[in-house]
Amino acid sequence: MGLNGVSRVHILGGAQTDFARNWSREGKGAVALLREVLDDGLTAAGVTDEDIRALNGAGRVACFVGNFCAEQYVRQGHLGALLTEASPLFYGVPAARYEAACASGSVALDAAMTKIRAGDADLCIVIGWELMKTVDSAVCGDILGFAALQEEESEGVPYPFPKLFGRLADELMRRYRLPEEIFLDDLARIAAGNYAAARSNPLAQTRKWFMDYGEARTRGTAGNGYVSGLLAVSDCSQITDGAALVVLASDAYVASHRLSAPVYVKGYGHRMAPLRFDAKMAESASSPFLLPWTRQAALDAYRRAGLDVSDVDVFEVHDCFTSSEYAALSALGLCAPGQEHDLIAGGCLAPDGTCPVNPSGGLIGCGHPVGATGVRMFLDIYRQVAGLAGGCQVARARNGNGMMLNIGGSATTNYTFIVGT
User: Which residues of 168-195 are buried (b: 16+ CB within 10 A; e: fewer)?
Assistant: First the structure.
């Protein structure tokens, strides 16, 4: 039991689809995706059809769907109700869709946790998904532009988000007076590290791809062309089809089912920065942090958990671009702003480093089905803390805590979660 009689939010398990798959080429759509992740996820969590039926009869189960833009990608809305097409088991179960751009999965998680803490549900099923390969890359870039201020930042702009995060790279160099060659080499190390980690992840989109440090630092070539500004292909996350699911439970559910369920949610943070990139930079001009609201989301999670950064053993961060992972390092407190080089060049972020970051491969290596990403990150830090991460498992944790940072837009929506034993 948590403080003041409020239930803890226990994590029972979950599943992720293979992010290397192209569901359109397989002739499959959203319902098939949902059926697969529901079957795998509920089985992994030890939840039976009988459990759901009993909870549904008592009004103690709910579903939460994270998705960014299915209306554009697959011409489908009303995504909570779509679960009833995946299985009649969900007839009568309250379900709804949650959206916050690339943080859609995290806002769904937050809603589920709130339902449990309020005492309104004992079992919450959280599903994040996106099918992005239904359109070509140019159209996909236009759709992703809805996560920015459309009329000023993305309308009529090809691939708006590489441009926004290219500007973030420029601002990092300018604000912290970073030598360009060293900074770009650090971004190459981030990319190469995430690709390397993905090779140990059997569900990662790029597990069979090649991108080492030498290729990542050699930008402007046929194999690593520039995308926007200083950023090249190696600096970008992927266009991905996929889903992830986690099951959360109350103290009452864990007790009634005689489960150990040692991993639970210890802390969270949710902060909103200005939507426009220019407004973000103007607001942060007086702060040591380029992304102060990302930093505050991290501080909020540490405060709620009663922990600090030294108590966390493994991190999953939002590397939609290498520049976003770079900025995340100081926001999480792993180093002071502008001092990221020593962490990156020193190998500290590697799975066997002193502060492992993205042992899954991150968004660059594992993949980035937008609505699924927050749930996938949460599932991976759960697996790390529970010792269930397989080939991605970092060395035995000293403290038994993992943390994730998921952002939406150009670090507009900022979510952090800390889970532990």
Answer: bbebbbebbebeeeebbbbbbbbbbbbb
